[in-house]
């Protein structure tokens, strides 16, 4: 590499022949011309400073100048000319003379014959680093414990003696390397010294020495090395001197090392858990021995102090770091080394120590016979314990002792137990077994019960001490008499000798039991839960059999043993009717005393012999298994159930299906149900269509048994999560749970595919680890069924997993069809309400209801019924009752008696299933219009004219959406994150005379209806709720939005979970919403609170309504007149850190509005300052001499600055000034040529590198 020293340039300009000119030789920082071959002439007037100058005239020979007189010449070309100066025999430490160079950068081998036509011509001496003069480059790494020296950054910071004990030297063997002058060099501090971090760096002899300058006294500004202020690295080129960089280190408080203290006995066994702590290197520590019960300290030792390896790994041992032991108190003190160390304390037994012996005496039931005996005993010293004989108990007793006791022996003659305790003491348990054959001591109590109840607990005879005067309450404690349903426990009586019945009066609880006795638990019917039924005959027929029945509340009509019915000629039995004229249905239950009348009607339409598709429904039975029921089963038909491969699972007669169904089926499974001629009876297991004549079976109805019925609960799992407990579960059935996106949830105990097997005597399956306030789908399958959980989602059961809340939940009560609210009471106080048809209430509120006396058709009030929710009302026929609001929403309908039909037969409308999730609005006007529309056909009119009843049923199906349905509504909404919790569809079914029949072709199968639907709590609190009518037109879905009332998005609508909407049967409706979070914004100055719903993972500033808040407007304090302007939002009213409204919201938040006093002048000044700097940056960006990279960086910085200057939310003065400083720093950096690079420029070429020679100016 060539190292050149460039002097300032001299002005040069063209001249004419004969004009005076000068020829100059500049030695720069090297040896002077006086030491060259020009030494004889380089003196006096020939010298200008250290430059040799020859005067002459342009175009005249150089030899004409007196200053060249006597110098050796080269003779060629135009003539003789002086030789160029040389420095033969002259040495400059580290450098070798390279030659003379002109201003053009060309080396001058010979001088011109004549003086050039420039006023001044200058030649510069250039020297380059040689390869023969090595210098030591020393990079030191040490910790200096001399505080004054360690803090110094001048020459006093250098150690005078490197053997100074105050120096801890790291990796010393790597400190020195050999470099040649002008070689590129670099060094940095070490990051691998355990426990230490960089503190400071010193540098000396880093400048190049000019010719004649002594070591350590270099003054050249060009070349050499320096410290990078940002990285603390040494960068540059090697000077012609011995360069030293000293990196000094200090302890890093974030890097800590482990101290372990062990406690052992004299044999080295651990007697106390080790203790540990961590400390930074050089920290002071004190280690004190622990006081251990029954032990005295014997010795202390540093058992692992590490090693000192400063050279290899940079670590020092505890001994070298400094540690000492105070032998009087066994305290260690020292300085922490930079590695883990271990101290060990050794203990010996305390000879004065005593331990504890405990003696327990109890009977064989665990009852304490004597107070526990506690003794202080010496380890190893034998002890005697009294073991007395006790009346009523077997001797000797059973004796057990802990392993810490030895040499145990019972002397039955002395009744003494001998034993020897060890250090731990111990417990002796003496158990006396009751000698129940001793009738003088024990009384025997036996227990019996009547037929209508039992009792839980231990029913074996009890033996009590005659001397203790036990009472009846005491001897029966824990038996818990459990009456059969609808019976109550009456009390205890004395039993007959064989225990089959009671005798005598009821015994009081305080009856003394001091002799053997037999007790009888008696149960009686519960008042109000048993009813007397009467059966009578209407005209045109008679009845035979029992005409009365005494049954419990809730007895199903289908389970009653009814009298036989004998219709007169030309009449047939039309059904049983209650006192209000309502036909009794199989599913109805008995809830009051009642007289039922057998109605006989004229024989009407005969069997049409048409096989209809069955009206079937799948449910889950009380034991967890599946059940398929057939509504409107024809008693003249047979019915078959098949699997999806049409394989027969079972068959039943229509008469059998009136009171039962197909049971014991697999949950979460689809089946087909066929109506057959009664003569068709396929075998179990055959393929039905292959074994029957096509004329003998109907088209099949597909029916799905859900995964769950009422056999599950949502519980806490004890770990902050939720779990769905299926109990009873179907035996040997696998259950899994999915989210609404169809992803299987990995629950504890599941296999790799997410399935959990039901198990236990009472089978149960637990699906745990669930998040609160989410909607899930539970699915099931049988072992060996090769089906993924996600493939069964359409057959599964939706389960809402609701979290616990400390706030009392709001619910809605809505009344329809003439019902209204008259009063709401809460905690004894009257609550105001605006709408007497709908109110938002809380569980436990007492609500007074009323209804119009008659409806629009003049018919009287009949009873209340619940469309949504659970109505617990003893007398539902009372028009103006008061109810207690249950947990959950409640939609009640006032029902009125039907007007007299124009035909002997009645028409009615109903809906299924009545699970409380979906309901059909059956208010009078809607119901009548719907019945008229559906039955306005000749088939129904003929049937009713013949006295045959017609029933239409709207069958709702609510399920998880299909993937295609989800994609359709997501595409309509335009957001893939939209939630699709359920799909609702419906179909019509028709019964004629109690049998399922096809719907006549001229009946509109898609009538208008009004639907109530429940959005459970897992869907509350979000945003963008929409209900879509989804039409499938040849594989292309069309989505039409359907309005819901109340609107779930409207916070003032009163929505708490129930909506209603207009719909059509056989249409498909899909609910969507977006997850959202509630942001509460408190404006303390205006004393206002705003609630903003923000879609999950979107910014608050993008939320609807946020920009409309008045918080952005200036607020004038009405008292002080101070104007406050919006500053931002914070987590607290006094928050120093603002909340970024552009950040995605991922949880509910409470924020406070932050204000600052108005300071418009200062703000305007700061903004103008920023705008001026933006203008400067714009001009610079348009300058084509600026590089493309810099222009792009300027463009981005200008856009950022403009965003700050023109921001809608006015920036603060600090933000304006910060934007100004950032932009100005970039402009200054570009106009000044950029930051200094790590590698310094060539001294002869300030703008760039290069290895060629240098030249002077001009």
From TrEMBL:
Gly residues composition bias: residue spans: 1246-1258
Domain Bacterial repeat: 840-898
Residues spanning the signal sequence: none
Database matches in InterPro entries: Bacterial_rp_domain, MucBP_dom
Segments of skewed composition (Low complexity): 1232-1245
Pfam families named in the record: Flg_new_2 (PF18998), MucBP (PF06458)
Keyword annotations: Repeat
Residue ranges of domain MucBP in the record: 259-347
Stretches for region Disordered: 1230-1258
Listed name of the protein: Argininosuccinate synthase
